[in-house]
Amino acid sequence: MGINMQSVQNISQKNYSLEELESFCDEILNLDPKIRFAGIINDKGKLLVENKKKGLIVFIDPKDLEILLMETALGVRMRRDHDAQLGPINFTISYGRNVISIIFPFETEILCVTAEKDLDFFKIPFLIFQLLETKIIKKELM
Question: Quick count: other Cβ atoms within 10 Å of Cβ 13?
């Protein structure tokens, strides 16, 4: 992973270097050995940064991943239409045949995490959400 000094400005109009966001994704990967992937996409589904475990079987090719991320972003935008009635979503979990996907919408970006199916999904998503609040969301308020 090379150092990239570009910054992402969409996250609540704050500047985060890609290095900072990659480091954040690294922290997520290190929370549990069953976490496979952590990436941040924008509200259109464009992958801004990603980190993934080395040596894993990849279940989806890059073109299909691009489409999946666009679908994820669209779903998050559509769910936000109901925030006034139901309250904002902290995260959603999808339990698939091969992996668990956990989506954390925040501001205009979305944190996407995938993990092995035997991940403790009663514990780990809350740890990730706490890390997201501490490292990204609360930093935005400063």
Answer: 9
Cross-strand bridge partners of residue 92: 103
pLDDT digits (tens, 9 = 90+) for 31-89: 999 999 999 999 999 999 999 998 887 788 889 999 999 999 999 999 999 999 999 99
Question: What's the pTM value of the predicted model, to 2 decimals?
Answer: 0.84
CATH code where residue 125 lies:
3.30.450.30
Long-range Cβ pairs for the range 80-87 (8 Å, 24+): 80/105
Residue 52, both tokens: 């993934």
Question: Is-contact 126 113, C-beta < 8 A?
Answer: no
Domain span holding position 61:
32-141
What backbone torsions phi and psi does residue 122 show, to the nearest 5 degrees?
-90, -15
Residue type, 6: Q
Tell me which residue of 47, 50, 23 sits closest to 36, measured CA to CA.
Answer: 50
β-pairing verdict for 100-106 and 47-52? unpaired
Quote the CA–CA distance of 122 and 70 in Å, as a whole number.
27
Q: How many domains does the chain have?
A: 1
